[in-house]
Amino acid sequence: xxxxxxxxxxxxxxxxxxxxxxxxxxxxxxxxxxxxxxxxxxxxxxxxxxxxxxxxxxxxxxxxxxxxxxxxxxxxxxxxxxxxxxxxxxxxxxxxxxxxxxxxxxxxxxxxxxxxxxxxxxxxxxx
Amino acid sequence: xxxxxxxxxxxxxxxxxxxxxxxxxxxxxxxxxxxxxxxxxxxxxxxxxxxxxxxxxxxxxxxxxxxxxxxxxxxxxxxxxxxxxxxxxxxxxxxxxxxxxxxxxxxxxxxxxxxxxxxxxxxxxxxxxxxxxxxxxxxxxxxxxxxxxxxxxxxxxxxxxxxxxxxxxxxxxxxxxxxxxxxxxxxxxxxxxxxxxxxxxxxxxxxxxxxxxxxxxxxxxxxxxxxxxxxxxxxxxxxxxxxxxxxxxxxxxxxxxxxxxxxxxxxxxxxxxxxxxxxxxxxxxxxxxxxxxxxxxxxxxxxxxxxxxxxxxxxxxxxxxxxxxxxxxxxxxxxxxxxxxxxxxxxxxxxxxxxxxxxxxxxxxxxxxxxxxxxxxxxxxxxxxxxxxxxxxxxxxxxxxxxxxxxxxxxxxxxxxxxxxxxxxxxxxxxxxxxxxxxxxxxxxxxxxxxxxxxxxx
Amino acid sequence: xxxxxxxxxxxxxxxxxxxxxxxxxxxxxxxxxxxxxxxxxxxxxxxxxxxxxxxxxxxxxxxxxxxxxxxxxxxxxxxxxxxxxxxxxxxxxxxxxxxxxxxxxxxxxxxxxxxxxxxxxxxxxxxxxxxxxxxxxxxxxxxxxxxxxxxxxxxxxxxxxxxxxxxxxxxxxxxxxxxxxxxxxxxxxxxxxxxxxxxxxxxxxxxxxxxxxxxxxxxxxxxxxxxxxxxxxxxxxxxxxxxxxxxxxxxxxxxxxxxxxxxxxxxxxxxxxxxxxxxxxxxxxxxxxxxxxxxxxxxxxxxxxxxxxxxxxxxxxxxxxxxxxxxxxxxxxxxxxxxxxxxxxxxxxxxxxxxxxxxxxxxxxxxxxxxxxxxxxxxxxxxxxxxxxxxxxxxxxxxxxxxxxxxxxxxxxxxxxxxxxxxxxxxxxxxxxxxxxxxxxxxxxxxxxxxxxxxxxxxxxxxxxxxxxxxxxxxxxxxxxxxxxxxxxxxxxxxxxxxxx
Lengths: 127, 458, 501
Prior knowledge:
- The structure holds 3 protein chains of 3 kinds.
- Helices cover 21% and strands 35% of the residues of chain A.
- Chain A is of the alpha+beta class.
- Chain A has one domain (6-103): CATH 2.40.50.100.
- The termini of chain A are far apart.
- Chain B has 2 domains: 82-333, Type I PLP-dependent aspartate aminotransferase-like (Major domain) (Aspartate Aminotransferase, domain 2); 340-448, Aspartate Aminotransferase, domain 1.
- In chain B, 37% of the residues lie in helices and 13% in strands.
- A 7-stranded mixed β-sheet of chain B has the order 1-7-6-5-4-2-3, with helices on both faces.
- The chains are: A alpha+beta, B alpha/beta, C alpha/beta.
- Chains in contact: A-B, A-C, B-C.
């Protein structure tokens, strides 16, 4: 339970890793955005409520906000992205992760969508 | 109408292609009740008539090309080399659009990149933008950067920041919603900085011409977690220490005197440069170097996500159109001057200001009110209201200085003071003529006891 | 065939400009400016002779598209011909070499011109008072919104929101933020106009202003403007006119008569002061009487036969820039208005509308027209038919360059998929319009029959498609003495975002 990747309606993914949760951007969202050139990420220690803005993700001519899919404290940010924002394009589910959260309630992860549901949701949003 | 292309026959043909009978049919969405019967504007003129009209208006102004002037205060009458006009007068530059399409705008984009590079060299900072409206709005934009970078809500400026700049800064502060504290730099170079200040904004040379001990103020600002913003005269940087050398986080200024005309106050040229950690907070357009799909060097507007056309209500600034053509002129000017030329222009201003201060300050009743060291400007204390002195000088066809009692009405030490500024255009003859006029004015006053300047041209 | 940087043409000891000798007694610099205030090394500005400098910048100029070399169908940008007499006039010593701090008595010609221009712009827009101070359109928006804020404050009100349509120029929301307002977006309806029912629901006592262009960015006249203004006024709000599209309605209808309280104009659009590759612009603001007391200082007034700068406005919002405005641009705009006069200005608007509709009528069989005309001075086509075959608007835009045309404004307004926003202006001849039509139709054919040539365009421009991702990921924003040269090429990308406005 909780170790399958889950997705939010704001296009983040979450995967449980022990007591913490790793967060990134969905493949669909990355494709929509195009070449990622910059990310503005939060400081470690920041408390986020579900739906709060985590930071900005920028492509050449678009900027989107990243939202916290669950509530929790930021315990790690992917510092690699500062020099290599292209990792988000190249490996959105792996090396392109964004932050690790210490969830207020690990159960929050289970309220998010499974991949199949998310894919349907994303396809509808695009149409 | 020579700017319109169509004959009536062509207009009819076009209407036919559109499929309407009359042009009015294209305005069918405009409610009848709103239609105008005619503009309240005079009838048109031929080119020669309009030229005569404009020549007659121009002739009603006393220009600085044909008479001595000592006006400064943020705008300076410097020489504009003919090559500057030859380049800015090229239609490929002045009739081109903002370079959003890099493939057909490499000329403008490379010029912006060169301009940014030169501003960085001048200020000793790492990044610069394509330009801002003028020095005053550049100060306001720099303040906004500092507010965003620090999350604080006040800025501190000494009262020796240009009054124009302070006034514009307060307008912006009112709009955005932050406070501007104005405090004097007291003895020993201290300012009342607190942990609430996002930035300390100091002009060097200050509005009265004095060179300020910037390093100390920068350290002071940083010790309270505030950014230090330097407001500089770019010509002075031929001699004076650049902001990057004394720890400024942001440098801004008015670039009009980099080969730009006075033009009664505009268009001028705001510039802004910063340390690299602030580059994503810079306002406005920025050009960057990259490559094209053939691997050739190319330039492009970059970091555009900061800007209004993408980030809209979350943009770092609302600026769109800036002063590209004036920046082009400044770029050509700096290229012509080169590293030695800039220092020479600065030295002209410096030497002449000191000669003028020595001579004018020695006229009985007059004295220099600006503390040394000063660069190109100084305040001259007069024995009578400054306005009277200006009137007398004007009767000798000399445009005097800025009456400081209008700017600092509450400052007793600046009562009856004129702010006088020099450039490379000021000649020894100009200064000597002014000295004789001042001497004559004093003499005339002591013999007739009539107010000075009566019968003058003013 | 790239042009080196001016720094790369530099050699120690060369110079492009000689100064006269200093003719006053020289003192050692160290005695005037203590060493600790002096810079340690001279800035590494280029060292080059005048011919080198002139040739370098002349070559660079030749890499630009410009009005004098070709057509610019940029929607909402009004890239019309810039008359040559304007440059002659602005260069007269009596205009170019007057100092902003000269006594009013010595600049009566300048002040008189500014006073008359205030009056002329008021007459053209149907406003009661005008300030010439703002330096550009966005600056005018900021100024106008601050006046609206002051107006509300004077009535003891502090409404916090500004409403703008989803089709608005990006400066509208950005200026609202700069003026301390929260932005609310009102959607467009199926007719491409503001959805008035939605507007009615959005407007309340917190509405400070509604910002609109009319005609809007689709080139459509907001035919319910009177009702919209009434809705906003009844809630105590003000109605703001973004003058970017004024060219369409010159002499036909005035913002002041439609119910607008504040307008800004772009003199670099409607009144043809040159765009300069991105400025200088000039963005005068006009207001109705209730807001006149909040105008920036100084305003130019007439006392009998004399003109003067009036600072005595206790309720002013203050100053928005140094001095009085982009005077050099005011000289040009004044010259333009006096040259064209009442009939000429009206014909400008009529021909601008004629040209736009002519292009629309000749292109709307090849490209989708999401909001059918007639339109005013501009219109919007969609490249979605071609996009379905893999050729996007950005590709067609780049291909237009090969035919010698600047692309239209693309991917704007945001509400039209694959948008191409086309504004020909009145100064283009039917020959140019026909040539543009032929090129567009040929590109539509290429998109179907030989898409590769469009997808790899442009082919004949000084550079090919530019790697924008590289530029943004590893910003190289200034030349350094020890610059390492240019990075290696990568696949360029250009997502669907506005280019042009």
